[in-house]
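Thread: Modeling a multi-component assembly for a lab meeting

Hi all, long-time lurker, first post. My supervisor asked me to bring a structural picture of a complex we are working on to next week's group meeting, and I have zero experience with this. I have the sequence lines for every component (367 residues in total). Could someone generate the structure of the whole assembly? Inputs are pasted exactly as I received them:
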Amino acid sequence: MAVADKLDAREFFFGHKACAGCGGSLAVRIALKVLGERAVATLPAGCMSAVGFNFPQLAFTNNAFISPFAATASVMTGLEAGLRRRGETDYHIVGFAGDGGTADIGLQALSGAIDRNDNIIYICYDNEAYMNTGIQKSGLTPLGARTTTTPGGSRSRKKDMSAIIDAHGIPYAATASVGYIDDYIRKVEKAASIKGTKYIHVLAPCPTGWGIATDETVEIAREAVDVGVWELKEYENGIWTTNIEPKNPDRVEEYYARQGRFRNTGRKTQNG
Amino acid sequence: MQSERLYPNPAEIPNSTAFKAGYLVTKNAGWRSVRPVIDAGKCVKCQQCYLYCPDGTISPEIAVDYDFCKGCGICAKACRLGAITMIPERGDADA
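Re: Modeling a multi-component assembly
Sure thing. I ran the full set together rather than chain by chain. Output:
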């Protein structure tokens, strides 16, 4: 079966105001096409809520909520409990939070939800900075990347969210990339079939913040995996499994060189 | 199932500020400086462009919705057969 046949042919995130070539909007669009119209989306402050709810332009055709910034996972907990209380079945509670909303501001709410093992799918679309507010450094900005708050390049390493998540003993966690859409679709599908808390961390390049052309988003998301900067893996039963091995680990320099955010910062990147 | 309604009846919500989900008032066509044109002769409908479009403006049958396409060019790069060409909007009689 072709991958596209697994998706709902309808669009649930359409007419949004994301920049051309936005990786985050691709991650949201595809996840909703996997989960279908019974998915209830929760979005904290961030790019996807800023581009999806421009009243009266309503880009979501499924149910979608804006949560307080720090409370994405808590709001998902409440929605799940509420739907269960109403006797609803056959629904998915899905959250789309950015890297800042996940690794920094929403971390404790997420930690609490995993601890309670609430039946939710938490998707972090990682564009590696607070892009919506003007490219400020987040906990997931990689070492050496220029942002408006780190004009000389970030001095700290990207937080290891996988380690933070697996320390909770979550039923299912995975990393993904919008450059490997088949792998991402499979992981969202799998998450939907598992009961308990699921966490998917999807690398979603941002042309505006990364200093790349709008048509390079998918390419660079794929390259990140191929050179080994971003690992595609899954966590189940306490074990991480690598899904796609890096093909060109020797071409890591090219990955950094083609992005404006790593140029002329005079700082070392994660790989030298 | 709840017999008693715990939430407001949608009919009682003032309709002046409430719209149906998916209510779109503006198009995104004006953002575009280049547009994708698909060569139907080369296209084998592998649907890579449909899968990778961040805006969902290419249908599963491979027709472009030019009202909402922002002209990012991801589809042209996703196409393995070179069936999609990005052409400038300016100077194009149809633009």
